[in-house]
Amino acid sequence: MGVPDHVMESISGHLSRPMLEHYSRVRLDAKRKALEDLDTWRHKMAGQAEPESRQTKRPV
Predict the structure, then answer these.
(1) Domain boundaries, the chain
(2) Which residue has the higher pLDDT, 18 or 14?
């Protein structure tokens, strides 16, 4: 993102690097799910079968 880690930690209120990494991972998972949902929607709109990767959901 171009912002130093210590600045992000301060803004977000995290006191440690592991906490920042934990919550950053949540954001990445949310982005991944959103992209998968978009892909599913795109396939439905095109009248195609759902992508194979979405037929078996990953554990959250």
Answers:
(1) 5-55
(2) 18
